[in-house]
Structures are given as C-alpha cells and as structure tokens.
Amino acid sequence: MTIALTVRRLRCDAAHCPRRTFAKQVEGLTFRYGRRSQLQQTVLEAIGCHLARRAGSRLAAVLRCPASPNTLLRRVRALPADPPERSPRVLGVDDFSLKRGHVYGTVLIDIETGRPVDVLPDRTAETFTAWLHMHPGAEIVCRDRASAYAEAVRTAASDAVQIAERFHLWLNLCKTVEKCVVAHRHCLVPPAETGQDEVVAAPAAPVIEGKPAANTRRHFAAVHEMYDKGVAIQVIAETLRMDRKTVRKYAHATAVDQVLSPRPRRDSKLQAWAEYLNMRWQEGCTDSGRLFREIQERGYRGTSRSLRRWLEPWRSAAAPTPKQSEAPTVRHVVGWLTRHPDNLTPGRQLRLKRILTRCPELADLRRHIADFATMMKNLDGHLLPRWMKAAEGSELPPLRNFARNLRKDLDAVAAGLTLPYSSGIVEGHVNRIKFLKRQGYGRAHFDLLRRRVLLTPRANHPG
To answer: What's the CATH fold of domain 90-165+422-455?
Structure first.
C-alpha cells in the first residue's frame, strides 16, 4: 500500500532560529524524523519486546515491515521503562541469576497486580535499601529467607510487614527431613526374620568407604577440633580453606555419619520397576524390547539401553536371578514422609509403616511434619511457637536446628504462616526471566533484559 499525503510546510523568518522549515505531522500516522508510520513503529516495538532479535526480525519480514535485528533492539532500548514513584503496597522480591553462581539480579513484583515493578543489577542489601528509600510506600514485603532482603526492609521500610515464603519454608523442612533420614538410614533395611516369624534387630548401616568418604572424615575431625575450642565458623573456613556452608554443616553435625551419604546406585531410574521386571523375568519374559514397552506404559522415562544394561547380569547362566531389595532409598522415604498420606499407594503406606515401627525417631519426625503441614495449609501461624518448642525437644539434631533457625526470622515466618500473600507470582516471573535470557542469544545484557522484563506482558495477563 502506498499512502500519498499532502501536508503543510511552514518556514521560519527569524534569523536566530536554527530551524528553517516545519512540516505538519498527521496525528496517529507520522512523527518527526520517522521513516515508518506510527502503527508500524508500534508493531516493531511489540515484536522486539516479545521475540527480541533474530526471531523478531524474521516475523517482521513476514508481516511486510522488515527490520534488522539490531533495529529491533534499538527500538526496545528507546522505550520508557521507568519504575513508579512509589512502591506498591504489597511488594514481592526475589533474586535471579544473570550468570549462575557468579552474578545475580533482583526482580521486584507488585503482588496484587502481578506486574513487574523494577529489576536491580544485584542482590545486595545496599542496592535494595536505596531503592526502598527512593520508592516508599511498601506495607507488606514477600521475600525468601535471604538475610540481605530482610536487612534492607528493616533499614528502609521498618513499618512494613515481612512475609517469609511458605514454599521456601517447606523446602527447608524437606532438606531437614532428608538429613534426619540419612542419619537413620540403617532403619530402612528390613530386619531378618526367624523361623518362628520373630523379628530380630536390623543390621547396621554399611560402612561407606572410598577417597571422598575419607576426606569427609578428615575434614569433619579438623572442623570439630577447632569448633569445640570456640573458634568461629568463618575463621575455621579461612584456616582450612573450606566453604563456610560446609564448615557450618560439619560443625552442627554430632556424628560424621550425618554428613556421609552413600554413593548413588547406577540405573536408579529402574529401581521403581525392579520388582515388576523380576516378576516378568521369572515368568519367562526375557525380551528387553517387550519389557521396555511394558514399563514405559507404567511411567518409565529412561532409555532402552539402560534396561539392557540392567538385564545383562540376569542373562548370564552363572549369575543367579537377582532379588529386589526391600530397602527403599533415602529419597523415597523423604518423599513418603513429606507427602500427604492420601497420595500414597497402599503398598508405600505399608512399607512406611514398617519403617516407622522400627525407628521411633522417624515416627516422631512424621508427627512434626504433619503438624507443620497442617499449620501451613490452614494458615495457623499462632501455633508456630508451640510447634517450635516441640521440635526443639526432639531427639533429632537437624530438626532442632531447623526450629532454632526459625527463631532468627520468627516474625516473617509467623506472618508467612498467617497472611494469605505469597511469593508464587514472583517465582513465576523468575521462570519467565530465564526464558527471556535464553531468547536473547547472548545479547541479553542487563539493560536490555531489564526492559524486556518490564515491557513484555505475561502470556496469561490481560495487560
């Protein structure tokens, strides 16, 4: 389409005026120094925000408004992306990786509208504090349990209510449960039975050998030698040249078995189908292709090559037919303990019941998990002090440490278990940022990424 326009051209007679002529603009169609119409410019800006460089250029060519990849980036960078003057009433904050393990940024979200507010170039308390000073008005701040954000809110918005994200609380509890199960993994092995069906004591946990285990024992002894003398964890980490988190884990453990974990078994994906495979093998089905199709219909997501490796010892005439061990893995037991009982199959419920019968400590742990889950689901934050008191009286050191750590951020944790606000929308935006980063093809520098985060609406949001 070719549009022929007739516009007025005005001339200036003032000698000191730097402009000699003025062309009248057509509202909604033209603008000064523009080589495209306003509609076409708007289309290119939208394409640049959604698809960025190369993909956007290909789509623009299909729409008959060709533009180079760099032109689209320049249009995105020219768009205004200033944060509001005041912070939203309910503010969500979380970090995301610009370069995983090295550089991190911070994204700020309006929890009530679900829109991004601003993106900060790092995740330090100083940067977030300065932003809160420049944008007052936050009454509620939803965050994870990072100390930097908590310190910034206490400094710049002391009247704001801090909310610790429930997802991270549950995640921390699951990690605590895993430590407890590892410490009592000898209880996972089913006891032997006598001829009169009398249950004998469970065998001791296998001794973990190897160079990694030897290094762990050596570092554990060195850390406790200094920690028992009152040396600070930071000083121990600098002296032994170890990570501070590792030193803290070793220092808080009462025995080396709590930090030792057995090496993962190979072909672990097939453990869930080992009993079925053993049954089919005893029935005479030795075709790996048929067995692969059968377990694939039952949810197996591995490869046929893994199954063939699994069956190789069975095909040997000298090798006896293997038997499925009744001992579940630590990961399985952690999943059973942290899952709702109604979501467990009858077989898993029975196996868990036998484990809890053999191990009173894990049975006590399950009661604490159920109480915490009920409190979190019903938003009964007023019950938190009573739960922490009961957890601190437990015989499980990881659970006691978890309860003590909750006291360091008690107000935020209690608010997270009481108020209906959540950082779930923030986690969704963090996931969207990962997509925008990958879409940048190496050109997602912070200034461009920030504008795309602020200017690209979410797919499920009408705005």
So the answer is: Nucleotidyltransferase; domain 5 (3.30.420)
